[in-house]
TrEMBL record:
<dbReference type="InterPro" id="IPR011042">
    <property type="entry name" value="6-blade_b-propeller_TolB-like"/>
</dbReference>
<comment type="similarity">
    <text>Belongs to the TolB family.</text>
</comment>
<protein>
    <submittedName>
        <fullName>Uncharacterized protein</fullName>
    </submittedName>
</protein>
<dbReference type="Pfam" id="PF07676">
    <property type="entry name" value="PD40"/>
</dbReference>
<dbReference type="InterPro" id="IPR011659">
    <property type="entry name" value="WD40"/>
</dbReference>
Length: 271
């Protein structure tokens, strides 16, 4: 009986500790996430030994990417990559300024994330950081603003930062997740991801008129991401079909196009 009682107590303590640990969070708590495992799994950057987050430079001659926790700059003509960052934190999700002189990215120290703007010629870094999570920078087409995501309101919303005055302003206020903003060829508009539970949508925010519309909505696509064409109203996004992820292109001037008319970019298995 004594042995059985000890085993029962041990199982209870183990169960209690596991249940308690499930609700602990390393990063700043967000009000609309009941369980932070979903935030950390689906929204935060990942550490990868291989290359992730490719970002072509405006001149088309260089490619920034993340690997092994740092950022790299690949010369597309020579095939040589130079490391741009070297600190103990994890740097990822780089984006170029329109003039190619700055690189903005996410820096994760394991407890918090910040947005860094790095001047490539001098190495000078400017940090956008609060006690909350900051993610996914994107330069405006005129280079005067940096769009990014912040959890400072208690939810992941879109913000903008003026590179000259350092003024910040909140742009959106939907529930849970608003991130992965991308400047559209039409100046004054942003494409971004909105996620709430299993719901995922690509939305277009017109910063001049204030209108906010859905371009494409899906469910259960937790790694639903997109990027924009620099000169045309076209996007490319990643989404699954037939039990595998594919890249799709979509014309934003015809957002009502049925899925079977969108183009699927299937990769050659030999690549």
């Amino acid at each position: 009986m004594e042995t059985l009682a000890m085993v029962t107590i041990a199982v209870y303590l183990l169960t209690f500790s596991v249940a308690s640990a499930q609700w602990e969070n390393r990063y700043a708590k967000l009000n609309d996430f009941g369980h932070h495992v979903y935030l950390e799994q689906h929204e935060l950057p990942i550490l990868s030994h291989g290359q992730t987050d490719p970002a072509p430079a405006p001149d088309g001659k260089r490619l920034a990417f993340a690997a092994r926790g740092w950022l790299w700059n690949l010369n597309l003509e020579t095939g040589t990559a130079v490391r741009l960052t070297s600190g103990p934190e994890v740097d990822s999700r780089p984006r170029w300024s329109p003039d190619g002189k700055h690189l903005a990215f996410v820096r994760d120290n394991g407890l918090n994330t910040a947005v860094i703007i790095k001047e490539l010629a001098t190495g000078k870094e400017t940090k956008i950081d609060t006690e909350a999570i900051e993610l996914d920078p994107e330069f405006s087409t005129d280079g005067e603003w940096l769009y990014y995501t912040s959890g400072v309101s208690g939810s992941l919303n879109l913000w903008k930062y003026n590179l000259s005055s350092e003024m910040t302003e909140q742009l959106t206020n939907l529930s849970q997740v608003e991130r992965n903003s991308r400047s559209l060829a039409k100046d004054g508009s942003l494409l971004y991801l909105h996620g709430s539970g299993a719901y995922r949508a690509l939305r277009i925010k017109d910063l001049k008129s204030g209108s906010d519309t859905i371009a494409l909505a899906r469910t259960l696509d937790y790694h639903f991401t997109a990027d924009t064409h620099p000169k045309q109203d076209l996007i490319v996004y990643s989404a699954p079909i037939d039990n595998a992820y594919h890249l799709w292109t979509m014309d934003l001037n015809n957002c009502q196009t049925p899925p079977y008319q969108r183009r699927s970019l299937r990769l050659n298995a030999s690549l």
